[in-house]
Write a structure and sequence with these properties.
The complex is a heterodimer of chains A (581) and B (137). By secondary structure, chain A is mainly α. Helices cover 63% and strands 0% of the residues of chain A. The longest helix of chain A has 28 residues, at 497-524. Chain B is built from four helices and no strands. Chain B is extended. The termini of chain B are far apart. Classes of the chains: A mainly alpha (581), B mainly alpha (137).
Chain lengths: 581, 137
């Protein structure tokens, strides 16, 4: 008898009930059995170290029985009692209480055996209950919800026990099976047992299956692995502290909302989550930097689109309202960009834009992407006469490619802003792209770009700024502004505005370059879609992926679990997955 | 014994590398002399050495990249496409390479045409000779 459980804790309801039952003489025909149990308790008491009242003995007895005797023995004992009670039509409160105590889980969570104990008993109870009332079974199930009076003390431990039970029987568990038993017990006894509440858990199988990830399901969005990985590299290159990547996502989100109040695409978690194959629609957590760039591009590109929508008929009022602000910003920004841009060759940039547009087109066909490409092309066309090739390139490159960074807002963006349905966008994009070099705007959706040039040329004087619009800055580099700020933060030294601008410019070129490479790699393999193999090649050329460090290692190092799963699928089936440290 | 073999292998490899580097250095030196005589400027030895080292390193990179590109395209042979991909960064170089590639392709076509003609001629000759032989006999 090595059991030294000291019941010095406050007497629970169970113990009180035990006391009552043991001390008082039962007046039912089941007296013989109850006395028998009383004899057992006496016997055990002799060996028991506890000299507390009989209630304690009773409790210790049950615990001892759990340990010493076979479970079947106790279950048989219980079975006898329960069956007897089940057969009895008239039941006294005493018997009911006894049933509760016998069949309900123990109050102590220190005893996992209690879990096993309960298993045979419910199964035993079930057939007895079924005999009594079949129809009540169905009725019992809905009763799971409303818990009637219940001792709080029983509730909490019951729940904890419930978890233990669930973890054991998760896989093959028949929820209905287990849920029925408590119902039956509840039916049998007028008092609700703790089983009522404890078995309320199974109604949330989702949370049980993935206890560690019991949150809202992750929204799936199109993911751009390339851009994301580029951003990864970028963060490691520019600043290096790993914490930055953690900072960027938080920082980018408000930034984007500020920058693009009309297009609520939210920056995905920065630097994390290598997105899935481009062919798979998955969230694209491109680096925050790229997101920024994309945001800037998008705002810009959406600006011209806005202008079109602004002038175009039949545009949803929502679109108009949203883009009006952007239009202003762009109108303001365009004269600025003319002064800033200049050296970059026009043709290569345009080509780059065209390529990127095609690449983006070929990649996952998210509506946003299409919209961006459309807008960027339109904006590019519009800016051609003004010589803002850089703007066009900027709008085209990242905006199109990184338009894959879908986050919650992106869906809104897609639904509200996209003028066309996703299925039709690919063709539309292709037609667009083909006509991109030509001055003639494409027939489809080209309403935006067609109206854009006229509008831009018409609107020469900048409009008065609407309060609350985007801050006055270079629209094509607005997204990279955030990255430049991060750069200056980690530089530990004050940076001039010009230096920040240069950093932005370099980032811009860099991202364009990378995306260009991605597209070329895909074409080299005879494909039209960028796949993770292309990205691995890119990373290999950059020296991030070596013979010692594989892509998976990088994924594990830098991505959060949700995104990591997309790239390195692992089976769940009740496992707890922890990221490698 | 095994270690000795490995060591000697390494030595061989090392000496091979050295020879290659020396060859590159010599070629770079010749080219620099040409340029020097062209522009009427002098090249210091350190400059030539630096250039040859950089060239050698770049050659290694190129080789690795070419192999990666070929593997990426699921091929086991390095192709002109791989080379073009490698040279895409420099526009003038890319243009040059593309032109050369086209020239070579043309040459190949011409050669093939010539070979076909030759084969046909030979076939005719052999047939004729066979017939002649038959006739004679």
């Amino acid at each position: 008898m090595a059991y030294n459980f000291s019941p010095d804790s406050e007497p629970t309801t169970r113990t009180l009930l035990r006391q009552v039952l043991d001390t008082a003489v039962p007046r039912t025909p089941r007296r013989a059995r109850s006395t028998r149990s009383g004899c057992w308790s006496l016997h055990s008491a002799q060996r028991d170290l506890l000299e507390t009242p009989s209630s304690r003995r009773q409790r210790s007895q049950t615990k001892m029985t759990a340990r010493r005797r076979s479970h079947t023995a106790t279950s048989v004992d219980r079975l006898a009692r329960v069956q007897a009670s089940g057969h009895l039509e008239e039941q006294t409160p005493r018997t009911l209480l006894k049933n509760i105590i016998l069949t309900a889980p123990e109050s102590s969570i220190v005893m996992p055996e209690a879990v096993v104990k309960l298993v045979p008993s419910p199964q035993v109870v079930q057939p007895s209950r079924r005999k009594s009332s079949r129809g009540s079974l169905e009725l019992q199930l809905p009763e799971l919800e409303p818990p009637t009076t219940l001792a709080p003390g029983l509730l909490a431990p019951g729940r904890r026990k419930q978890r233990l039970r669930l973890s054991e029987f998760q896989q093959g568990m028949d929820w209905g099976h287990l849920s029925q038993e408590p119902r039956e017990n509840a039916d049998a006894s007028s008092l609700t047992s703790s089983l009522n509440l404890t078995f309320a858990m199974p109604l949330q199988p989702q949370s049980v299956k993935r206890p560690g990830l019991a949150r809202r399901p992750p929204t799936r969005r199109v993911v751009d692995v390339g851009t994301f990985l580029q951003d990864l590299r970028d963060t490691s290159l520019t600043v290096a502290p790993p914490g930055e990547s953690h900072r960027t996502p938080v920082a980018t989100v408000p930034m984007d909302t500020v920058l693009e109040d009309t297009q609520p695409f939210s920056q995905p978690l920065a630097g994390h989550s290598p997105s899935v194959h481009h062919s798979l629609p998955c969230p694209s957590p491109s680096g925050a930097k790229e997101v920024e760039g994309a945001a800037s591009r998008r705002t810009r590109s959406s600006g011209p689109g806005l202008q079109n929508s602004y002038s175009g008929p039949g545009k949803p009022a929502q679109l108009l309202a949203r883009k009006m602000e952007e239009v202003e910003a762009i109108a303001m920004g365009l004269p600025n960009t003319s002064s800033v841009s200049g050296e970059d060759g026009i043709e290569p940039l345009q080509n780059g834009v065209g390529e990127e547009a095609e690449e983006s087109m070929e990649e996952s066909m998210s509506v946003r992407e299409v919209e961006k490409a459309a807008e960027e092309q339109g904006s590019a066309r519009a800016e051609e006469p003004e010589g803002h090739t850089e703007v066009a390139a900027a709008a085209g490159s990242l905006g199109a490619i990184e338009a894959k960074e879908p986050e919650g807002s992106s869906e809104d963006e897609d639904t509200s802003a996209s003028p066309e349905l996703p299925p039709s966008t690919p063709e539309f994009l292709r037609t667009r792209r083909l006509q991109f070099p030509e001055p003639a705007p494409p027939p489809s959706t080209a309403v935006l770009p067609s109206e854009l040039p006229k509008h831009l040329s018409a609107r020469i004087p900048p409009r008065p700024r609407i309060p609350g619009s985007r801050p006055r800055q270079d629209p094509n580099k607005a997204g990279l502004n955030h990255y430049a700020k991060l750069f200056s933060f980690y530089a530990k030294m004050p940076m001039e505005k010009k230096a920040e601008e240069m950093v932005e410019k370099c980032l811009d070129k860099y991202f364009q370059h990378l995306c260009n490479d991605l597209e070329v790699f895909a074409a080299h393999a005879g494909r039209k879609t960028v796949r993770p193999e292309d990205l691995e090649l890119l990373l290999r050329r950059q020296g991030l992926v070596t013979d010692q460090v594989s892509l998976h290692v990088l994924v594990e190092r830098h991505l959060p679990l949700e995104y990591r799963q997309l790239l390195i699928p692992c089976a769940f089936s009740g496992n707890s997955v922890f990221p490698s440290q | 014994m095994m270690e000795e073999e490995e060591w000697s292998e390494e030595q061989q490899r090392f000496s091979y590398l050295q020879r290659l580097k020396a060859a590159v250095h010599y070629t770079v030196g010749c080219l620099c002399e040409e340029v020097a005589s062209d522009k009427d400027m002098q090249f210091s030895k350190q400059t030539i050495a630096a250039i040859s080292e950089v060239t050698f390193g770049q050659c290694e990179n190129f080789a690795k990249d070419l192999e990666m590109f070929a593997r990426h395209a699921k091929r086991s042979t390095i192709n002109t496409e791989d080379v073009k991909l490698l040279a895409r960064r420099s526009h003038s170089l890319l243009k040059y390479i593309t032109e050369k590639n086209e020239d070579i392709a043309q040459l190949n076509l011409e050669k093939k045409a010539k070979k076909k003609k030759k084969l046909e001629d030979e076939n005719r000759n052999s047939v004729e000779s066979a017939e002649a032989g038959v006739e004679e006999s």
